[in-house]
Amino acid sequence: MQNMIRKIILLLIISSISVLSFSQEILTENQKLESLCKVWGFLKYYHPAVIKGKIDWDQQLVKFIPAVISAKDQQELSNLYLGWINSLGSISVCKKCQRTVIPDSLKRNLDMKWLENRNLFSDSLIAAFNVIRDNRGQHI
Q1: pTM of the model
Q2: I need a labelling partner for 22 at 20 to 30 A (CA). Which of 46, 73, 99, 114 fits?
C-alpha cells in the first residue's frame, strides 16, 4: 500500500513539474505596469506621431492602465501595445535616420535591450519597436 502511495505522489510531482515548465509565464501586475511605462516613454520620444505633440500623451498613459493590468498573458499584452502603435498611424522609412551614428558619449544611459524581451513581448511587437526606433528622426 505504501509503495502505491509513493508512486502516486511521485507521479503527481512529475506531472506538476512538467505542467509548470511548459505553461506560459504569468506576468505580474508590476511587470505589466513597468512595461507600460517603458513603452509609453519609448513612443513619446521615438514615434513621429507622438513627437509632433498633437496627442495628449499623458492621457494615453492613464487610459491604458486598466487594459494593461487586465491583460492575462504576454500575447494579450503584446496585442494591446500593437493596437496602440497601429492607432498612431504608419511610419514611413527615414533614410537619413538610418545613416545617423549616435556618438558613444550619448549612449551611456541608452539601454534599449528591454525592447527585445521575448518573455514580455511577441515577435511582431518587437518588430514594430524596431521600425519605430530605426525611423525615429523624421520630426527633425
Answers
A1: 0.73
A2: 114
